[in-house]
Specification:
Layout (H helix, E strand, L loop, with lengths): L4 E2 H11 L4 E4 L6 H9 L4 E4 L3 H15 L3 E5 L3 H4 L2 H9 L4 E7 L21 H5 L5 E4 L6 H13 L5 E7 H4 L2 E2 L11 H4 L8 H13 L3 E5 L1 H5 L3 H11 L3 E3 L14 E4 L6 H8 L3 E5 L5 H4 L11 E6 L13 E4 L2 H8 L9 H13 L12 H11 L6 E4 L3 H9 L7 E3 L10 H12 L3 E6 H6 L4 H7 L3 E7 L4 H10 L16 H7 L3 E5 L2 H11 L6 E6 L26 H7 L7
Parallel strand pairs: 2-3, 2-4, 4-5, 5-7, 6-7, 9-10, 9-12, 10-11, 12-13, 13-14, 15-16, 15-17, 17-18, 18-20, 19-20
Antiparallel strand pairs: 1-8
Amino acid sequence: MGMSMKASDYIVQFLAEQKIDKVFGYIGGAVAHFYDSLDKNEQIEIVNTIHEQGAGFAAEGYARVTGKTGVATATSGPGATNLITPIGSCFFDSVPTLFITGQVNTYEYKYNQPVRQIGFQETDIVSIIKPITKYAVMVDDIANLKYELEKGYFLSQEGRKGPVLIDIPMNIQRTDFNPAQQASFFESEEYKNYHSVADCSKRIVEAIDIIKQAKRPIILIGGGARISGAGEALSQFLDSTHFPLVYSLMGKDLIKDNYQYNLGLIGSYGNRYGNMALANADLILVLGSRLDTRQTGTDLKTFAREAKIIQVDIDLNELGSKIKADILIHSDIKEFLEELNKSNFSNTITPWQEKLLSYKEKYSSTVGIDQKEKAPNQIIHKISQHLNAYDTVCVDVGQHQMWVAQSLETKDYQRVLFSGGMGAMGCALPMAIGAALGNGKRAIVIVGDGGFQMNIQELEIIKRRHLPIKIFIMNNTNLGMVRQFQELYFDKNYIGTKKDYSVPHFENIGKAYGIASNTVSNKEEIYKKIEEMLLDDEPAILDIRLLESMTTVEPKLIVNKPIEDMYPFLDRDEFTQQMIIKPLD
């Protein structure tokens, strides 16, 4: 019956059987056995990062472009704790990932003894990360290894996807065992109890009736629609209905910006035309979005006051949890849309479509309502004009993230990866490494001076592996997002954002890593260099010195204002005239 093998070899073989071809990690004593096994297996490659946080974000990037489970590994103690931020990021954004950490030998582990530590680098990582994983377990008995590995992998991809962590002591990794003689999760009662989502066909029939009556329908795409792979089904629905749509930050790249009735980003920093479109709808079909206050505004009573809301989500707990919807549908988004596509929708919505196109024309994302150019938005728009069909754009956290969300126009097969729920500065560079290695395509990093400094060490991998990664630093020499906040609420006390904050010479740093680097500061130069830099696939860095260091993100939603009424405020007569539903007093 089968043959015996070393446990660490078995783990690697299991991953290879799931068609996972890359594992991101950082070597340490407690994962030395696993590393050795990875290196000996020809179907899988270990990618060594410079910091475990880099490994975690790279695994996230890999998972997001391939749909496969991204795997990161680290040693016990500091290695494992350095994975916490990417684990949280994958949990909040529902990214299928498997984190494999090494642990001290079981005979050195303290269990419930009232001491702080027995083994060197011993740390109870499972208890630490339980709240931000779908499942976390320490395998301290070889008899459970196969079961727990299968279960962890299954859960990363099941239902609402997310991260799992498996902690494996060194003595378990080096044990010989026969997997054929071990219990399998897939033959267990536990597995049989994971049934697919409840049948909601009755609710879908009700939803179809409501959709057919809508005169001003709009679709709101959230990250869940992207994760369920609903792109094709949604395109088919749009081809037959020409319904307008808007997206949350995480829904940005599912339907490209060149779809005529794509009204773009909504929410706190949404485009004015997107928020006005959403506010004036009579029906909102919410696909895989949790409708957090960044999307709806803080005063929930004012959101979509005259619209019926149909919310579709694979996570039962998200349905109706924040906004009261008229119809709640517990379903995979792709399956829901496939069901919807069996019906015929012949809504006459021409006046609505025309109104929305006029919004789009009137309120550009690159020009303010004062007709002044928004320089950072124009730089982002310029970058999107020179991207190629398969580029993956990885975006860090800060003002530049909002400029990208507002003004980067996606087309073809492009992807845009944001850190949504966690909002982790420093994610973009390592995420781009995982993306480029995952799909073999070029990756574009758009990052601020703050976020770039957080995982700057990962430039070493780009050089070492000669990866096709282009880095654009939107450098305003301050932490603009919080600085903008300090202007509004702290009487311009710029502590931490300008005071006691500084920026090194990025071009010199890039060159020290052996990467072609340049600094640009005037508009012509910036545009010319962007165009040149995007002609090839060589790694390169462009430090864009923004002339106006006091950059702002506009328009923005002020606390307690309805989403349609953004700052800087429209002239009241014009605002009233543009509204279809009754404006609030």
